[in-house]
Design brief:
The complex is a heterodimer of chains A (about 350) and B (about 130).
Chain A (H helix, E strand, L loop, with lengths): L2 E8 L3 E4 H7 L4 H8 L3 E4 L6 H15 L7 E7 L10 H8 L7 E5 L5 H14 L5 E9 L14 E9 L5 E13 L2 E2 L8 E2 L5 H20 L8 E4 L5 H10 L3 H4 L5 H4 L6 H10 L7 E5 L4 E11 L16 H6 L2 E2 L2 H7 L7
Parallel strand pairs in A: 2-14, 4-5, 4-6, 11-12
Antiparallel strand pairs in A: 1-7, 1-8, 2-3, 6-7, 8-13, 9-10, 12-13
Helix pairs in contact in A: 1-2, 3-4, 6-7
Chain B lengths: L2 H6 L1 H6 L1 E5 L5 E2 L15 E5 L3 E10 L12 E8 L4 E5 L12 E11 L6 E9 L1
Antiparallel strand pairs in B: 1-2, 1-3, 4-5, 4-7, 5-6, 7-8
The chains are: A alpha/beta (about 350), B mainly beta (about 130).
Chain lengths: ~350, ~130
């Protein structure tokens, strides 16, 4: 069955605390941190972007399982922050992991769910026999305008998920999606920062689509939330996934390992792939994982995953790359001035 | 840097692709067309370096060219790769963290971004291992 062959996550070392951002804008940092459930977020280094993070995540995945590079037939990088408007991030990732030239590649964009759209595309290509392995990356150096609510959460990071049928460490039992034209968040061509519709991002956008895809999955699989050991939901903040998981009937214990946003922030396209990585870091053979991403604009992709014995076999070396927990623990704190410099928010002559 | 010049060295920069002489066992980075020891008796073959090494020596750059000005102060080091050859590269750490003999490993980073409209050059830098 088609499934996850290997995975790797990458998170930059730099961090800024929610309270430090609030201090600059004269806001109540403790209140904002508690309201969003986000204490701090990651910040890319001056020489990091979506391409460098994607390469690091893919290399970590390949450190865990050394699959033949010429058998990687597709690479898709999902992001809202591709460094080039025209020139594929995926081609650089392919070159840097030695998968070129006999492969197809493209960059995906669907707000925060472009990474899971890449997983679905790779699944289809593997199942149809077009390719042996496909690599789906979700990564972002997320943008949020200074002073905007998004600035408290927009962070940096990503994960690479390799898909194949050859002894997967986790089988993907099913996937389904729920998509409508809902303008809750957008960024026009040439604009530096995204715009959003405030509270409109909640009920008709995030909650409607996440619940739509999740209900569809439970219905099509004939399962209940209690059938799953873990659940991962898109996490623009900690409040939304906690609320939607409760509405669907999942417990705080089920979403625990995959809820990385309190210490990472919102990595946009990276959010769910990093959540999957954090869950696979602790999962055991037989564990069943429920996943629902969300991308503004708007849509959700749901996945039903079962971890296999291969995750603890000689085929796979989980400790050959850092866990999400280890990456989160390795932080270096910046003040707002250094954060602004790192994010290119200072206008230079 | 012109685009063709950057592109020709891409595999060296991205994946530390060098070569070695099978006759005497010496490694070369950047790659050489001829072994300086064995000359015409040498047999040069491609080799991808592991990216693990140690700091042979370093300097802290405090005054840099415009492309690197935002990153100052930063350490620039001669890295002795575990295969034995050396290369010059930036080490991503605080100036007071770096030391001679420090183990390092390769990472993929931006080397130069040519303004807002130019090409972005990627390549290998190092971090403490």
């Amino acid at each position: 069955m088609v499934g996850i062959i290997t995975y790797g996550a990458y998170i930059p070392r730099n961090r800024v605390k929610t309270e430090e951002i609030a201090r600059v804008w004269g806001a109540n940092g403790a209140e904002i941190a508690a309201g969003l459930g986000v204490k701090e977020k990651s910040v890319p280094d001056l020489d990091e972007d979506t391409i460098t993070m994607s390469v690091e995540a893919a290399r970590y995945a390949l450190a865990r399982r050394d699959i033949p590079r010429d058998a990687i037939g597709a690479i898709y990088v999902g992001s809202e922050s591709h460094p080039y408007a025209v020139k594929p991030s995926a081609a650089t990732v392919g070159e840097a992991i030695g998968a070129t030239p006999v492969m197809t590649a493209a960059d995906f964009e669907f707000a925060c769910k472009a990474g899971t759209a890449g997983i679905q595309t790779c699944m289809g290509m593997v199942k149809s026999g077009m390719i042996k392995y496909g690599c789906a990356v979700g990564a972002d150096t997320a943008q949020g305008a200074p002073g905007d609510a998004l600035e408290y959460t927009a962070s940096a990071g990503g994960a690479a998920i390799f898909i194949g049928e050859d002894n997967p460490i986790a089988e993907i039992n099913h996937t389904c999606s729920f998509t409508t034209d809902t303008p809750d968040f957008w960024r026009r061509e040439g604009q530096t920062y995204p715009s959003h519709s405030g509270r409109f991002s909640g009920d008709p956008a995030y909650f409607k689509h996440v619940q739509g895809a999740a209900h569809l999955m439970l219905e099509q699989m004939g399962t209940e939330p209690s059938d799953y050991d873990y659940a991962i939901f898109h996490q623009p903040n900690a409040k939304f996934p906690r609320r939607v998981s409760g509405m669907l009937g999942f417990t705080a214990e089920q979403i625990g390992p995959g809820l990385v946003v309190p210490r990472l922030g919102n990595t946009y396209s990276g959010a769910v792939p990093v959540g999957i990585s954090a869950t696979l870091d602790v999962a055991k053979p037989g564990d069943r994982i429920f996943v629902t991403s969300y991308g503004s604009g708007a849509g959700s992709d749901a996945f039903d995953i079962t971890v296999t014995d291969a995750i603890e076999s000689d085929l796979f070396n989980r400790s050959a790359a850092p866990t999400v927990e280890e990456l989160l623990a390795d932080g270096k704190y910046l003040d707002y001035a250094l954060y602004a410099k790192h994010k290119g928010k200072i206008v230079m002559q | 840097m012109s685009v063709p010049r950057y592109w020709r060295k891409q595999q060296n920069r991205y994946n530390l692709k060098g070569n070695r002489c099978e006759t005497c066992g010496r490694y070369f980075f950047p790659p050489r067309v001829l072994c300086p020891e064995c000359r015409r008796d040498g047999k040069i073959v491609d080799y991808e370096f592991s990216g693990n090494g140690t700091v042979r020596t370093f300097s802290i750059i405090r005054t840099a060219s415009d492309d690197y000005d935002l990153q100052t102060p930063y350490p620039l080091a001669i890295i002795e790769l575990e295969e034995g050859t050396c290369m010059t590269a930036q080490v991503i750490c605080e100036p007071d963290e770096i030391a001679i003999g420090m183990p390092v490993k390769r990472v993929f980073r931006k080397i130069i971004s040519e303004g807002d409209g130019g090409v972005i050059v990627y390549g290998t830098k190092f971090v403490p291992a």
